[in-house]
Design goal:
3 domains; 8-stranded parallel β-sheet; Jelly Rolls; single chain
């Protein structure tokens, strides 16, 4: 077993349990301060209740019913394997993890529907409330909700019970780098609740469930698709949605549209978002009632769409107060392929300009929380470190972060390539190796689940301007139908680019030709007339630093491993000299250095796993990277 599973006895409370190493932010975590922030910055309502904190837990076999007695306390939202959970036990594939908590609904919520939200639960779960089965969910990285109104008591405590199973690497489900026996590049499993749990009230008559924001820079407008939790009849002419774009305290644009129609907000002289100037507009979306804009006009004479309908509602008179209001933000930014300094070789364009994308492979793991970051402050530290070091991008590797991570990236200004978490049986099979021409076969059910979770990821993260690229497959990990999936993602989201497969087996699909090159001197990708050429992984310089290792007894490795600061810096300079050469002479569009931090036995981070040691000074990194941001003539 990894050393993280051999900690303090089960009776130790979460606040005193220690990991082999911990970041400074993880050391501050208590049951009273664990993730208090609002979890959904893109769809904010003023009333909500945070359910993070201590829950009861028990682990049983899958064949028995819910327990009547529980083993102890678990700190939500940290997974059961993590030190911060206070449990630090593995959940085996044949077992079930049970959670229990008693909640009371605020009296001021009476007369409204109550939604219970889970940020993420890995992997399959079912929820009971006061003994009634509310529903189930499958998927380890996506948020989900239940309407629990009809299960609630009119007064007093309500008993929530959640049962969770996780096949980990014995199943084919998307899970990224989690395996039951961690080694090398494969890490500790994550099971159960690992993101915020919370409740909110919504109007009984109807509420806004989704607001989809698409910047159209070429037309200087914002496309808005605001959707209710259930459809409204076409014959309902008085239900409408008002959308307002705001710059500081100034209204930039506002319009009213019929429910079910697309709105377009003109954004005159838009302030474009970029890593140098990450400007964000605020947006408010309201469910309103209007006077029928067509009066006594016969129904068969009324327009059902098009300009006439849009104009009528834009002029409609809003009556009363909105029944539902959500706030969020958006940015005006454009990502595309276009001509670059080398004739015939397309490059990555940001707002119609060639901007080299320089970033690290970012795994998002933490020594005491595993997949769960400890706090906003911790995430901001990492992103700010990358910005100050001369990175303008990161590749979020085989993990989907909590929404607040992307909010901080939007706010601070860093481009993100978002990987889809890989899914395959284990790390020794269904793993298509480099140079293999034929993709492996996958079971239909496994493909359906992968594509469902891929779709959910894109839908959930759609509004974040920092995300500019979707990465469908990493290397050969569970790869299948790559050309079809790349085309599918391009149709799902035409506003972004698609990296069909990062490294190994290029199938000619997507917007990128992406190679991985871990040699001491990175190789150059060959030219491609219809796609940008990028190095999706390189580097991997290892430096194990005593006192900052996850487990000193295990193999602590890098692709090249050194023992002092000078040789590490020299090796880094040597690698980046080739990246700069390829940028200048071959129109290389991007490079991804492995990696932001050490992770468990991997010690090739720019930071140690506890984030306490910066291995190459920030000013040195910034100076090394500077030539990548000078225009190539």
């Amino acid at each position: 077993m990894p050393s993280a599973w051999a900690q303090a006895p089960a009776s130790a409370p979460p606040e005193v349990r220690k990991a082999p190493i911990m970041s400074r932010w993880e050391k501050k975590i208590t049951p009273d301060n664990a993730w208090r922030e609002y979890p959904r910055p893109q769809l904010v309502r003023p009333q909500w209740q945070n359910l993070n904190g201590q829950w009861d837990y028990a682990i049983t076999t899958q064949t028995v019913p819910a327990p009547t007695s529980f083993e102890g306390k678990i700190l939500v939202p940290f997974c059961v394997e993590s030190t911060l959970s206070g449990v630090t036990k593995p959940l085996r594939p044949e077992q079930r993890l049970w959670y229990r908590r008693y909640v009371q609904v605020p009296t001021q919520w009476q007369g409204q529907r109550v939604l219970l939200h889970f940020g993420a639960v890995d992997y399959e779960c079912s929820l009971w409330l006061n003994g009634g089965l509310v529903g189930s969910h499958t998927g380890g990285s996506d948020p989900f909700s239940f309407d629990i109104t009809d299960f609630l008591k009119t007064e007093g405590d309500n008993e929530l019970v959640l049962g969770v199973t996780d096949p980990s690497s014995t199943g084919e489900q998307p899970r990224g780098k989690q395996v039951t026996n961690p080694e090398g590049i494969w890490y500790t499993p994550v099971s159960g609740i690992w993101q915020t749990v919370w409740m909110e009230p919504v109007p009984t008559a109807g509420y806004l469930e989704e607001v989809r924001l698409t910047p159209e820079v070429d037309s200087s407008r914002l496309r808005v698709e605001a959707l209710l939790h259930r459809p409204v009849s076409e014959r309902n002419y008085t239900s409408a949605i008002r959308i307002t774009a705001i710059d500081g305290k100034k209204t930039v644009a506002s319009t009213v549209v019929k429910v079910g129609q697309i709105a377009y907000l003109p954004i005159k002289n838009p302030k474009l978002w970029s890593p140098d100037k990450p400007f964000l507009y605020d947006v408010k979306t309201e469910l309103v009632t209007v006077e029928d804009p067509f009066g006594d006009m016969a129904r068969n004479k009324r327009p059902r769409g098009g300009r006439a309908l849009a104009d009528a509602y834009a002029k409609a008179n809003v009556v009363g107060t909105p029944t539902d209001v959500v706030t969020g933000y958006f940015a005006m930014r454009k990502i595309a392929l276009g001509p670059g300094p080398v004739q015939g070789q397309p490059v990555l364009l940001l707002n119609d300009k060639f901007v080299f994308q320089n970033g690290p492979l970012d795994q998002g793991w933490w020594p005491a929380g595993l997949l769960t970051p400890p706090s906003d402050e911790a995430m901001i530290f990492e992103l700010d470190f990358l910005k100050q070091s001369g990175f303008n991008m990161l590749r979020k590797h085989i993990k989907v972060e909590p929404d607040r991570y992307y909010y901080q990236a939007d706010r601070l200004g860093i481009l993100i390539w978002q990987d889809m978490p890989s899914g395959f049986l284990d790390h020794t099979s269904q793993n298509d190796h480099e140079g293999v021409k034929q993709e492996p076969l996958r079971r239909s059910l496994a493909k359906e689940q992968f594509e469902l979770e891929l779709h959910r990821m894109i839908d959930r993260l759609y509004n974040h301007p920092s995300i500019v690229t979707w990465v469908v497959h990493n290397e050969g990990w569970g790869e299948y139908d790559n050309q079809r999936l790349a085309a599918h993602v391009q149709k799902l989201d035409p506003s972004r680019l698609v990296n069909a497969v990062s490294g190994w087996n290029d199938r000619g699909a997507g917007d990128f030709f992406d190679i991985h090159t871990y040699e001491e001197e990175p190789r150059a990708p060959e030219a491609k007339p219809n796609r940008a050429v990028v190095i999706g992984e390189f580097g991997g310089i290892g430096w194990p630093i005593e006192g900052h290792l996850w487990n000193p007894e295990m193999r602590n490795w890098g692709y090249q491993t050194y023992r002092d600061a000078k040789t590490v810096e020299d090796a880094y300079r040597k690698k980046y000299a080739k990246i700069i050469e390829y940028y200048r002479n071959r129109a290389l569009s991007a490079a991804v250095y492995t990696q932001t931090t050490d992770v468990e036995g991997e010690v090739n981070g720019l930071l140690t796993y506890d984030r306490e040691v910066i291995k190459i000074p920030v000013k040195t990194l910034r100076k090394i990277h500077a030539p990548l941001f000078k225009e190539v003539k």
